[in-house]
Amino acid sequence: MGMKEEFFLGLDLSTQSITAVVIHLSGGTTHRLSVPFDDAYPAYHTRGGVVFGETPAEVLADPLMWAEALDSILTRLKDMNLTGSIRALGVSAQQHGTVYLNNTFVERLKGLDPSLPYHTQMQHVFSRDLSPVWMDSSTHEECREITHALGGHEAVARITGSIATERFAAPQIRKFWKKHPEKYEQTAHVALVSSFLTSLLIGGIAPVDAGDGFGTNLADIRSGKWDEKAMAATAPGLRSRLPRLLVKDALAGRVSSYVAERYGFMPDTAVVVGSGDNPCSLVGLGLIGLQDIHAISLGTSDTYFGYMKEPKDTERSEGHIFGAADGGLMFLVCFKNGSLAREAVKKRYGLSWEDFSRILLETAPGNRGKVMLPYVLPEITPLVLEPGIRRFGGLTADDVRGNVRAVAEAQAMAMYLHSHWTGPRPKGILVTAGGSENRGLLTVISQVFGVEVSSLEVRESAALGAAIRAAHGFHSARGRRPAGWRDLFESLVKAKRREVIQPPADAVRIYQAPKGLLNLYRACEDFALKGGEHPQGKIRAFKARLQ
Ligand code: XUL
Question: Between 143 and which of 164, 290, 436, 491 could a Cys-Cys bridge form, CB atoms 3.0 to 4.6 Å apart?
Answer without folding.
Answer: 164
